[in-house]
């Protein structure tokens, strides 16, 4: 990865907790975590974060790969993904939290999303994402307010992790 190297990554015995320990020792701070992964930030890398996961079947990996093929402003920018035997990590753009008020203002809690929306809209992006999920994966949908964030430079809503 461009900003950090996990020195034990190539060792097949390296586990998720080993990677997290190494990041912490190297000055990275855990800023968020979920069931399958954690997010790490470093003061020298203000525009990106590392996502480290312990489940290689996590739907986020397939979603992230699909995001590298789209130009939608509603997809996160994935800078790099590294897969190993027992974990993965990815460098992604740093986003800001989405307020619950804006989540409901944008009607993101309403699913399925309406058909009659502009092609560049968030609802259109989410409809396409849902079609890809159903057609090409066996992942479940995971649309909730914690899986939407804001790109600070443009104030656009970004869907970060819609598949589990």
Total beta strands: 8
Low-pLDDT parts are none
Largest sheet: 5 strands, antiparallel
The general outline is: globular
How many helices?
A: 4
Main sheet: strand order? 1-2-3-5-4
Mean model confidence by pLDDT: 84
Rg value: 16 Å
**End-to-end distance, in Å?**
25 Å
Helix content: 10-25%
Taken as a percent bin, the fraction of beta residues is: 15-25%
Name the helix and strand elements from N-terminus to C-terminus, one letter apiece.
Answer: HEEEHEEEHHEE
State the secondary-structure class.
alpha+beta
Describe this structure in words.
With 164 residues, the protein is α+β, with helices and mostly antiparallel strands. The protein is built from 4 helices and 8 strands; from the N terminus they run αβββαβββααββ. The chain has a 5-stranded antiparallel sheet, with helices on both faces. The chain has a 3-stranded antiparallel sheet with strand order 6-7-8, with no helix packed on it. Strand 1 (29-33) and strand 2 form a beta hairpin. The radius of gyration is 16 Å and the shape is globular.
